[in-house]
Structure formats: structure tokens, C-alpha cells
Amino acid sequence: MRVPEIYHPHPAPPYRALPHPLATIRAGISGFPSPAEDYVGRTLDLNERLVKRPSATFFMTVTGDSMVDFGIQDGDTLVVDRSIDARPGHIVVALVDGEVIVKRYEMIGKRPYLCSGNSRYTPIPVADLDCQVWGVVRSVIHEYPV
Amino acid sequence: MIGLVDCNNFYVSCERVFQPRLEGVPVGVMSNNDGCVIARSNELKALGVEMGTPAFELQQWVNQGRIHLLSSNYELYGDMSARVREVLEEFSAGVEPYSIDEMFVLFDGFDAATTRQLARTLYRNVRQFTGIPVCVGVAPTRTLAKLANRAAKKLPEYGGTCVIPADGAETRRLLERTALGDVWGVGRRLVERLALQGIETAWDLRQADPKAIRRRFSVTLERTVRELQGMPCIELNDADRPRDRIMTSRSFGRHTGDLGELQEAIRQHAQRGAEKLRRQDSLARAILVFLKTNCHRSDLPQYSPSVVVELPEPTDDSRPILAAAHQGLEAIYRRGYQFMKGGVMLFDLVDANRQQLSLLDTPERAAQRDRDHQLMAALDELNQKMGHGTVRLGMPSQNAAWHLRCAHRTPRWTTNWLELPKGAT
């Protein structure tokens, strides 16, 4: 039986760990061992670096060009963490009138706004909208064609 | 104390996390193969749509845009269920999944105020972290925790969490308001028989003499009485309970990371589960396969995955169940981990006698089903007479594709790179 492919439900363990470069740095010339030596032989795991809380982390694909000044481009993958309470300055995924949008949450004067990273779009005042934060963007993954 | 965390309208809630437009409107989830409703939002319940309603009866409402019907997306539900479990595990080492959307959480060693606070935190965090709304009931026994959970869900004054002690005015009031049929493990036939004795509410049953109940009814019901009195005596996989899901799992004799050994263990569990399914005249729609490493060995790498595989159609036939278990195991297995425990859960059960036949059903398929039925009956009889494992099925090889009808399945938002949700900038 083959139901459409099954993907690993949750990449909790390091799926593909990379070898850590050997630490060759010495602390000064005194010969005391460097703290970095404790990590010799460890491997690096991108999940561990990017996904702080797996249960609350979701990936999302970006559409549109309104966030390019914040380094978020059409087609990029966002790492969204729902366990963080949104504060001004965070890039958030918000539900606005039933749509899912990505903006920067800012306070202008004493009023909250959703701002774009593109001068062609003006800030949207939140007060007049049915708006809810879905999650906070922790990082963006941009893959280059190679 | 034992907490029960129950996800509200779980399948519909999973869909709503990624489709905010489904919020507040009637939504149903359909089984993919037999085309009937297997999950409903509150709005759909309010329209009088029952579980098991065939999709074609609702087609007109769908066309009018009054309701939304979605195909089931078990991959999504399995992933969201694992996330809920993970959030709970941040608070308690004792989390026992009871079904895909219900989990018992052990709350030991807290005073009453802390317990209440913890229940609120679980309620809030699961909702925030995963997007799934839940209710939390906490009490000294599983039966009372179930009852508290029901109160948390149905009675607005509790606001989603309800903590009750073994005794006291509040516990009494709740038990008095709970009909017998809503007590865990009390089926319809028992309700009728108990009514003849003048026992009509959970409180009446609690007041009954456990020994007399044992004589007149069963040990199982006696345990329910004691549980209602606040004395824990039901284990999670109590064999005598009628089930809405079948769990078979066990710790391995020793740690193992060998795929062959794991396959053998999962095969046994799946076959045992299928036998239990046939004994209680149920069919399953889906199977969950899980593995666990030893969480007490922090020196070893930890990995406790689970996955849900949908069965090609509701079935009690060991062969497709084994095939699905095998496929699930392959999907979650990773080398380099020492597993300590594994098992399967068969869920979304339907009554075998009330099974809706697929629209695609043909006389040939009906005849095939009869033959399958006889084969399974023969298998069970042999195993019963000659001892377990006399006749066993091997793990099937991957072959024939099954045709799934899942035209309305939503994307696998969390488990497929090509189907991630979109965020417009």
C-alpha cells in the first residue's frame, strides 16, 4: 500500500548533522585550554539553531514583495514561532480580515501599526481592523539557485 | 491528580489553524473513502448534522456555500496531535495519549492552587503554541477527570478548565448534573439496567455499594463506582472497557535500534490490535504508529516520533492494517537511536455492522469482502485455539497503489515542503 508519500512529521532530531570544524583556537598563548575545546567532535544541527520550540514552530512560504527591505523575498521560507508574544519591532504573521499576512509590528506615536518593508506600501493602522497575531517570524530562509 | 486534556473538535480545529476563513462557519471533515462526516464544528452540529451523515446528503448546502466539507488530512492531524503532546510534556513527564485528541497528564505533588494554575497554563499554552483549542479537566481519578473535562467544555462558568477534588460541594453538584450515559465506560445498555435500580446520575452511581454493583453487574462497573468516589483503579488500557480506540504497545525487552526487530514488534502490535478490533466488531479508519527512546537516559540521543496513516477504507482486516503500520514505521524510523518502546493505536472506529459502503462498491468487492472476512475469522480461531502467534502474517511488501478519493483534502501544511501555508507580504 502506498498512500501519497508520508513525510517525517516533525524534524525533532537532527536529520542531517554537519561535522563541526575542529576548534583550533587557543585562548592566548598561555596554554590554558580554550572553552571551545569542550565542543570538539560535536555536530551542528540547523534545526537546533533555527527551531527553538518545535511544538510551536511552523514553516510558511512568502508571497509578494512588500517586505524586501527586511530581507524577506517572494518565495522565501519563514520560520514562525507561535510561543512568542509579539512585541513592537517583531516581524509577525497576522490574520487580518481572514487573510494571512506578514508585516512588521510597530508603534507609531502610541498606536499600533502593521508596516511593510517597501516604501510603496503605507503602514496599516491596526485599530480599525479585525487583526490577530498568528505567530512571530524568527528567521527567513532564502535559497539561491545554484 | 490526573488531568485530561481534550482538543475541541480536533480535526476541524487543525484545519482552522491554517485557514482562518473557516473560523465561525459550519465545517465538516469527511472520511476519504466512504464519504461520510467524521468530524464537525460546533456550527455544523447546530445545524443538526450527525456523525456519519453521507456527504451526498449535504451536497446542496455545500453548493449553496452554507457549509464547508473537507476531506480528512490525517497527516496534518497526526502532526498537530504530536505538537499538543509535546507542549504538555514541557509540564509533566507523565503524558499518556488516550486517543489522537485526548491526553492524560499526571499532576503529582502540587497543592490545589498550583494545580489550578497549571491547568490554566496548559489550556493557554496549547492554544497559543499549536493553535488548537483544548479543555482541561483535573481530578483524583481518570473517570472524574473525564467528567471534569466535560464540565470544562460544556459549562461556560468554567471557561475551559475544571479542577475537582474527590469530595466537596462542587464535586457533588457536578456529579448530580451528569447523566449516567456521560460517565466514562457506562454504555447505553448499562444506563437502562441501572435506571431500573433507580440510578440515574453519576452521583447516584457514586452512592451505590461497590460490592453490590460487582455482584449485580461487573467488576468493571465496580471500578467505575470507586473511581467516582475518588479512588484510582482504572489503568489506561483497561482490557474490559469498551473502546473508541485500540492501543497496543509494550516496552521492548531491551533497547533496540534494529529496523528488523522494530518491524517485528510493530507487526505483532498491529496484528493484536486488528484481532481486538474484530472481537469488538469495529472497523478502524486510521492507525497511529509510535516509537519511544528512553527519556530517563539523558546520555542517549532522544527521539520519540509518531505518525498517522490513513487506512484505504474502514477495515478490520489484518493485512491492510499491517501494511499501514509498516509504512508508518518506515516513515518515522531513523538509524542511530535506541528505542525502548513502540506500539500502534487504531482509531476513528466505526461499528462494523453500520459500515457505509463506498459508492464505488461493486458485487465483486462485496464478494471479496466476504472472503476476507472468512479468512480473518479462520485466523482468529486458529490463534485462539492453538495460542497467540500460531498463524501470523508477514510484513507486506509495498505494492498496488490504493486509490484514495481525497478531492477536498487541504494541503499538508506542516509535513510537506511543497504545501506550506502562504503568508502574503
Helix content class of chain B: 25-40%
CATH overall fold name of chain A: Umud Fragment, subunit A
In the CATH hierarchy, the architecture of one domain in chain B is 2-Layer Sandwich
Number of strands of chain B: 13
CATH class of chain A: Mainly Beta
SS element count, helices of chain A: 1
**Beta-strand content of chain A:** 25-35%
> Quick one: CATH superfamily of chain A?
Umud Fragment, subunit A
For the secondary structure, the number of strands of chain A is 9
Using only C-alpha atoms, the radius of gyration of chain B works out to: 22 Å
Summarize the main sheet of chain A. 7 strands, antiparallel
CATH superfamily of one domain in chain B: DNA polymerase, Y-family, little finger domain
Q: Largest beta sheet of chain A: what is the strand line-up?
A: 3-4-9-5-6-7-8
Unreliable segments of 5+ consecutive residues of chain B:
396-405
- Spell the H/E element sequence of chain B: EHEEHHEHEEHEHEHHHHHEHEEHEHE
Biggest interface found: A-B, 46 and 55 residues
Task: Give the strand content of chain B.
Answer: 15-25%
User: Helical element count of chain B?
Assistant: 14
Keywords (chain A): Autocatalytic cleavage, DNA damage, DNA repair, Hydrolase, SOS response
Protein name (chain A): Translesion error-prone DNA polymerase V autoproteolytic subunit
InterPro entries (chain A): LexA-like (IPR039418), LexA/Signal_pep-like_sf (IPR036286), LexA_repressor (IPR050077), Peptidase_S24_LexA (IPR006197), Peptidase_S24_S26A/B/C (IPR015927)
GO molecular function, one term (chain A): hydrolase activity
